Amino acid sequence: MKKVLNVLLGKYYLTQKPNTSIAYPVTKGQITTDDVIRMLKQDGMEIHETTAKDIISRFHKKVAELVLSGFVVNTGLAILRPIIKGIFQDKVWDSAKHNIRVSFVAGPVIKSAIADTEVNIIGEKSASVQLFSVMDKQTENTDGKLKAGGAVELKGQGIKIAGDEEHVGIYFTNTATGESIKIPNERIVLNYPRLLLFMLPNDFEPGEYEISVVTQYIRSDKQYKNPQSAILPRPVIVS
Questions:
Q1: What are the residues facing 237 on neighbouring strands?
Q2: DUF4469 domain: from which residue to which, for each copy (predicted)?
Q3: What is the pTM of this model?
Q4: Looking at residue 17, what DSSP letter applies?
Q5: Domains of the chain with CATH codes
Q6: What is the pLDDT of residues 148-188, one digit of tens each?
């Protein structure tokens, strides 16, 4: 069955070429394992929902056990492998400096589904909140290379961090692990609608990250009821 992914086009600000856009998938909400099991039951799955949930739970635990025992596990959906982050100077494991992560890469089932997916452009993305560029303030480089402990400048539109919703803030999402790290509010030095300046923590884990901003800001006297978000068009490298 052909799948259709609806997308909105937003202006791409990191080039001077005219009429250049990037696509933003239109998400339909969050689906849990219980939701998937109910859908399978509706599709004719013969085993009981409780049994299916138990099997999936056991499967998840076994996969986690195998990956963290040193195996590369191909589940079909994803290929998982253990990785270690941190620099060793004295050949001793230090949990304050080192940590275990798991890399997730699309497996053959996902790749096959991607090949059978049609992209449907349904319109243009609202320009209420957008991220345009990032700069390492120490070097003034705008190539996406950042230093842990350094000052980072983000430019955009409507990006002032404002609102009481718990998810409001600046996020770095590791592209290898999917883990999102929120920049503490106290590390935000400047907070304007078109400019954010903040300090990365000194112990920030090196890697490739996607930067995003979540805010309820509209103007000084008005806020969105639901948070709005924007993602920097290209990932950054933290070293």
A1: 145, 208
A2: 131-229
A3: 0.56
A4: S
A5: 3-121 (4.10.520.10), 127-238 (2.70.50.70)
A6: 999 999 998 889 998 888 888 999 988 888 888 899 999 99
